Amino acid sequence: MKSPRWLVLLSILFLFACQPNIPQDITIIDGDTIRNVSTSARTPLLILTEAGITPTPADRVFVNGIPFALDHSITTKGSIQLQLRRAVSVILNTPQSEQTLQTSALTVGEALREAGFSLSANDLINPPAETALTGATTVIYSPAQDLVITTGEDVINIRSAAGTVGAALAEAGIPLMGLDTSRPQENEALPEDGQIRVTRVYESISIAMESIPFETEYVDSVDVAFGQEEILQPGTNGIMAVRTRIRYEDGNEVNRETEDKTVLREPQKQIVASGTKIVLAPAGGDIPYEYWFATEMYASWYSPCNSGTGNCSYGTASGAPAGFGIVAVDYSIYPSMAGMKLYIPGYGLATVGDTGGGPIIESAFGVPRTKWIDLGYNDNAIDGLSGWVTVYFLAPAPAEIPYFLK
């Protein structure tokens, strides 16, 4: 069915046909066919129709090389060349759809504009817009879109019709290199919201030397006095090379990972002789006592009526009456120390003859229970010595040295 506009054109042609005109020679070019006619018709549509050529609405004509409307009258005098450009099929593929166009446009770009597309310099057109249309053609058209690319603190605005994020970044002059990443990823299509985030990533390798602490081995020695130590072999720290990979994103460290540890020098253990030889020595000053061991202990005090029980208590673990000269130690070590003779400067001679609550001192003052001693006093003569004191263990030494003194 012919369109109303086409029918109007034909009506106008018949009106012109009724007007007397002097025949004029016209050369008609229809593709590869060239024919010469003599006609008094003056409109291209009527001239072509008289020559047995039926144009379609999508065809176009040129009069002496100039585009001319099918229904306009030719007023040119002299020789006339009428060229008919037949419409061709263009299969147009866009990101949204595929459609077929009938067009007599001269180029791909002209055909797209006729189809209602507004072309820009960044559009992707294949074949290019300036390609001449000489026959059926398939055209791929991706209009450029606005993109906002953020890298670090920089923001770049571009228009691109690239097929992937990576291609768009390359167009913008900020391609991904090395370990760089993007969101969306570089092989993905351009995001609908136009937002692309680039993260610059690089890694560095750090080689650091670390010390390997040496171990200490203790051996008993009968040649060294008890309570003394002697280094038989000095220890030497080892050296280790530590390889660490550090990752940075946009200039900020985000991760470090130890990749390898190489021992460059093994540590040499230290060997220490721990004395077991009992050697008697004077307690010092004018004190006529010989001792075989001395150590620091934390002292507290008690008396029969100041024992923390709420009553006066004169009994002790050894059976001796509580009072001056009887000292207590924690119940866990009492069996090994019961009856030992001691000398404490500021207190005097003492005998281990009672037990006490070492855990209370350990909890309250952080003093190990094996380092605590409770000094006994008479109720009517309390000196109240307390704090850290030197305790001399007087001769004779026991056959078996308690483990907690070693």
Task: Name a few traits of the molecule.
about 400 residues; mainly beta; Ubiquitin-like (UB roll); six-stranded mixed barrel; five-stranded mixed sheet; 6 helices
Ends distance: 119 Å
CATH superfamily of the largest domain: RlpA-like domain
CATH architecture of the largest domain: Beta Barrel
CATH first level of the largest domain: Mainly Beta
Find the count of extended strands (DSSP E, 2+ residues): 26
Largest sheet: 6 strands, mixed, barrel
How much of the sequence is in beta strands?
35-45%
Q: Which structural category fits the helices and strands?
A: mainly beta
On the 0 to 100 scale, the average pLDDT is 89
| CATH-defined topology of the largest domain | Barwin-like endoglucanases
Written description of the protein model:
It contains six helices and 26 strands. The chain is mainly β. It has five domains: 4-85, Ubiquitin-like (UB roll) (Roll); 88-142; 145-199, Ubiquitin-like (UB roll) (Roll); 206-275, Single Sheet (Resuscitation-promoting factor rpfb fold), CATH 2.20.230.10; 278-405, RlpA-like domain (Barwin-like endoglucanases), CATH 2.40.40.10. The strands form six sheets. It has a six-stranded mixed barrel with strand order 21-25-22-24-23-26. The protein has a five-stranded mixed beta sheet with strand order 2-1-5-3-4, with helices on one face. Strand 6 (88-93) and strand 7 (98-103) form a beta hairpin. The longest helix has 14 residues, at 4-17.
